[in-house]
Amino acid sequence: MDMSHQTCGIYGIHDIFKRNARLFPDQTAAKDKHDTLTHKALLSRVNTLAWGLSAVGISKGDTIAILSMNRNDYLTVYGSAAALGAIVVPINWRLSDKEIDYILDDSNAQILFADKIHAGRCMFKGRQICFDNETPASFQPFQELLSPKGPSFTPQSTAGKNDPFCLLYTAAVAGAPRGAVLSHDNIITSNLQTALTMGITQTDRYLNMLPLFHITGINLAFTTLQMGGSNVVMEKFNPEEALALIESERITLMASFPPILTTLTQRLIDSPVDVSSLKNITGIDSPENIQAFTRISGSRFWVLYGQCETSGFVTLSDSEDRPGSAGREAMISRLAILDENDKESPPDTLGEIGVRGPLVFQGFWNKGKLDCATFKNGWHHTGDLGQIDPEGFLWFKGRKPEKELIKPGGENVYPAEVEAVIQTHPGIKENCVIGVPDPKFGEGIKAVCVLNTSTAVTAQDLIEFVGERIARYKKPRQVVFVDSLPRDANGNIDRNKVKAL
C-alpha cells in the first residue's frame, strides 16, 4: 500500500522559507547590521545550517538553545531546526546565569547558540556555537556549521502539525520556569490569524525589535515571513535607532510594550522624523499613550490579550473600537469567562479567562501535573481574571490571587518567585511583593518587608541582594519596611490589604 498519503498533509515552519524562496526570491527577508538576506538566500542559509546540524548529530526531537540578542542568525536557527524537526529553546538573556543553567538542563539542550556578549555565561557542557567571529575558546564558530564536510542535502520537512517547534520558558510560579511547548501548527495558525486580522502582506516591513525569545516577537517575525514580507532586525530596542530605521527602511509594522510608545512619542516631539510609512502597531499601553503616538504617526494601534501558552494573540482589535479594553476575540480563537465550575459566565461577570482552539499550546515540558491543572473541562485556564462586556470586548482585571503576576515593561514576574528570594536574606522575617503603577514601565515591583529583630537592612541592600540572584528586571524598585503584614481570617498574608498600605 502506498503510504505517501501520510506525508501529504505535512506543512511546517520550514515550508514557509521554501515557499518564500519560490515566490519572492529576490525580496529582502531579513536585514540586520551584519547582512541582508533575500528569501532565496535565507532558505539557502537555513538548509546549509540544517546540513551542518545534522552532521553533528542533531535530529528530530532534539533541543537547540539560543542565548542571543536579535539578529538574522536567530531566524536561521529557527528555520534549520524546523527543517530537521528539532525544537528551539530561545532563552531570555536578561535572566540570571543560574536561571539560564536551569533552562538548559530542564530542556535537555544538545547544542547552544550564543552571541559573543552572552557566550560563556552558563555551565553548559554540550556543543556551543558562537554567532560572532570573535569566538570564545570553548565555542565553535557559527561559520563552521555553515561549511560542513560531507555530501550536501536538501532537508525534507518531516515535522507534523502537532510536533514541537519551540519551548518558551514562562515566569516561575513556584520557584522554577516552565517550558511551554508550541507546535508547528500553533505558530502557523497564529501567524495566519494575525495576518488576516491586521492585513499583513508580502509588502510589509516589520521592525523586529521585540526579543525573539518572547511570543509576540516570534509571532510578528514569523507572520511577516509567512506572508513573504521583510524583517528589519534590531538587536534590542533603542529609540533613536528605531526611529531612524522606520524612516530609512519605510517600516510598516511594529509592536510596542511600555515604555516603547511613550519614549518614541517624546523623541518625535523633540526631533521629528518621517514615520508616515508606519501603518500598524500592536501591543499594550494606556489609551492616552496610544492616542498620543497615533496622532503623530498616523498609524493604527491594535490592542491585544494573549499569553505564551496561547501562541500569541487571543484578542486583537483596533484600539479606537473600545479604548481601555483588551479587544475582541480573534478569528481563530475561542474566549470565555469561566465560573468556579468552568461554565461560561454571562456578560459583565468577573471570572477566569478561558481559551480554547488551535492556538492553545501542547502542554508544559516534563510537567504533567501542571497540564492537569491548566487543561480542565475543555478549556485552557489562563490564571487571568477578566470581564467580557455585552459587545464582546475583554476587560483585563489582573491575575487570580494564587497566580498573581506583575508585568514590568512586558516581562512576566510572579511575586512568589521574588518573595522566595527575599526570604533567603537573613535580615528578613517575612515579606510580600506587589505590583504598583510605574510611569515608565507600566507596572513596577514593590516589596513590603518585616525585618528580624535588631537587624539593619536598607532598601538598597535588599534591591541589590535580589538583583544578584535572579534576573535584574525582577528586582523590586521600591522597598518599604513595616512592623507587621496584615492577614486574613485564615492567617495568610492579605495581599489586597498590603496594597492599601
UniProtKB/TrEMBL annotation:
<dbReference type="InterPro" id="IPR042099">
    <property type="entry name" value="ANL_N_sf"/>
</dbReference>
<feature type="domain" description="AMP-binding enzyme C-terminal">
    <location>
        <begin position="417"/>
        <end position="491"/>
    </location>
</feature>
<dbReference type="GO" id="GO:0031956">
    <property type="term" value="F:medium-chain fatty acid-CoA ligase activity"/>
</dbReference>
<protein>
    <submittedName>
        <fullName>AcsL3</fullName>
        <ecNumber>6.2.1.3</ecNumber>
    </submittedName>
</protein>
<dbReference type="Pfam" id="PF13193">
    <property type="entry name" value="AMP-binding_C"/>
</dbReference>
<dbReference type="InterPro" id="IPR045851">
    <property type="entry name" value="AMP-bd_C_sf"/>
</dbReference>
<dbReference type="InterPro" id="IPR025110">
    <property type="entry name" value="AMP-bd_C"/>
</dbReference>
<dbReference type="GO" id="GO:0004467">
    <property type="term" value="F:long-chain fatty acid-CoA ligase activity"/>
</dbReference>
<dbReference type="Pfam" id="PF00501">
    <property type="entry name" value="AMP-binding"/>
</dbReference>
<feature type="domain" description="AMP-dependent synthetase/ligase">
    <location>
        <begin position="17"/>
        <end position="365"/>
    </location>
</feature>
<dbReference type="InterPro" id="IPR000873">
    <property type="entry name" value="AMP-dep_synth/lig_dom"/>
</dbReference>
<keyword id="KW-0436">Ligase</keyword>
